[in-house]
Amino acid sequence: MKQISGNKLLVKALKEEGVEVLFGYPGACTIDISDELYKQSGIDIVLPRHEQALVHEADAYARTTGKVGVCLVTSGPGASNLVTGLATANYDSVPLVCFTGQVARYLIGNDAFQEVDIVGITRSITKYGVTVRRREDLGRIIKEAFYIARTGRPGPVLIDLPKDVMCEMGSAEYPKSVNIRGYKPNTSVHIGQLKKALKMLQKAKRPLFLAGGGVNISRANELFTQVVDKTQVPVVTTVMGRGAISTKHPLYIGNVGMHGAYAANMAVSSCDLLFSIGTRFNDRVTGKLHAFAPHAQIVHIDIDTASISRNIQVDIPIVADAKEAISKMAEYAEELNTKKWIAEIEKWQAEHPLTMKQRKLMSPLDIIQEINNQFDEAILVTDVGQHQMLVSQYADITEKKQLIMSGGLGTMGYGLPGSIGAKIGNPDTPVISISGDGGIQMNIQEMATAVLEELPVITCIFNNEYLGMVRQWQKLFYGKRYSMTNLKAGALSRRTNGEEYPPEYVPDFVKLAESYGAKGIRVTKKEEIAAAFEEAKKNTKAPTIIEFIIDPEEMVYPMIQPGGTLEDMIMDC
């Protein structure tokens, strides 16, 4: 039987798994794998500028295509630079397979050059991690990794590859099937439980659907819309669930939680049945746990058994894939008379509509509304902070528009690399990243990747000269003591007791864009917004940075007070 090296088998395995794009950064322990990848055709290799950005790019590629994202990095710092990205993917249930180089087996444990126990380091933030100790196990482990990453609750899997194992000769066979004794994810729906839940729904006077990220992950949006149309039950979403149903749908109320719409939070607090699908009920959604949906019976559908009744005790648990469950709901659900309940919700919407104060200066809402106007089809990728919450509140997410972000971990620096991964996976779809002036600088080096890959992503920077979300908390709850949040501050501010700042912002984002070979545009007035996007759309072979100069006093409302309930909303200030 023909024998090949582990490096060759890895490349063969990637092709067998249908991998079209690999995000990789080389090093001593993976140079032989890089050499094998050089000899093949069919897999595009993307060379980012930092391993953290690399894993975010693979993550966004996976989120927007439904495929498994694939990474390759070297040992030591190459591997440890993956940690933030793996945690990001783990929280948001993103299927990744990440290969890390490792020193030869006889050196493991000897503090060899660029040796770290990456499997140990990442054990709590990966779905599965393993070091390949024997060449004969390599094919099986890779096959299992892809299966584990994409099944059940998706997540990141890490395979650590000692250099000597990969050079060793062995079988060229790659397994056709997987049989893992301790891993048998359930996706089918317990029909008895589902019918019980639907019966409860039928009896409810004030029913409410809560759609989480699981609906988007399972790509059940169309089916879920059918169920909503059939039942006439209103819908709220988590931030990660935004887009589970079109935000323009008449029964969609808005996001729930810390920065949720007033009507959405009031609906959760007043409903008598909360029918939740694909959400973990984290603290940003629930507020004070004992006061969450206090009058409601709760149905919870989730693919992850561990997520059910972990934070919120539920009345009817259903362990199932969201799409499978919603498909069955579409069969069995019946129309309800919800007109009186909907009228009550509409009254809340009229009392406190989701809007921002009209100002003479350009506001984030002006920018987001222009994106809504100019882009019928798009992928929006946000960083983390005020801009993220504003986009999740005001961006239209419809059948042709998708919103992705780091939701569970809240990773600054996700936006730009995320847009690159999304554009590589969806070359014919406009991709717009939205970042603050803080988050954009955490992975700004990826502008080089976007230029060299000829990716016409549009990068919006909301520049308010501050770390805006932390500043908002400092303004509301810390007596306006803006400690460590002013991005113009430096040695000069320390010398003058914080009263003076350099006259110019560092860096000049327009010049920085141009230095990379991208286009740079600065917008200071709302009248310039439309033209800036029109100009960016003409730039079809390179990225564009649009820097929007925003008032630091712009805030995100509504906002739940720390330790408060969903009814303890600060509406404006």
Automatic annotation (TrEMBL):
SUPFAM superfamilies: DHS-like NAD/FAD-binding domain (SSF52467), Thiamin diphosphate-binding fold (THDP-binding) (SSF52518). Pathway: Amino-acid biosynthesis; L-valine biosynthesis; L-valine from pyruvate: step 1/4; Amino-acid biosynthesis; L-isoleucine biosynthesis; L-isoleucine from 2-oxobutanoate: step 1/4. It comes from the Bacteria. It holds the Pfam family TPP_enzyme_M. Coiled coil: none annotated. Residues 383-547 form the Thiamine pyrophosphate enzyme TPP-binding domain. Its cofactor is Mg(2+); thiamine diphosphate. Keywords: Amino-acid biosynthesis, Branched-chain amino acid biosynthesis, Magnesium, Metal-binding, Thiamine pyrophosphate, Transferase. Gene3D superfamilies: 3.40.50.970, TPP-binding domain. GO terms for biological process: isoleucine biosynthetic process; L-valine biosynthetic process. The keyword Magnesium applies. The keyword Transcription regulation does not apply. Residues 194-328 form the Thiamine pyrophosphate enzyme central domain. It catalyses: 2 pyruvate + H(+) = (2S)-2-acetolactate + CO2. Binds 1 Mg(2+) ion per subunit. GO terms for molecular function: acetolactate synthase activity; flavin adenine dinucleotide binding; magnesium ion binding; thiamine pyrophosphate binding. Residues 6-120 form the Thiamine pyrophosphate enzyme N-terminal TPP-binding domain. Its EC number is 2.2.1.6. GO terms for cellular component: acetolactate synthase complex. Belongs to the TPP enzyme family. PANTHER family: ACETOLACTATE SYNTHASE CATALYTIC SUBUNIT, MITOCHONDRIAL, THIAMINE PYROPHOSPHATE ENZYMES. NCBIfam families: acolac_lg. This is Acetolactate synthase. It comes from Candidatus Blautia merdavium.
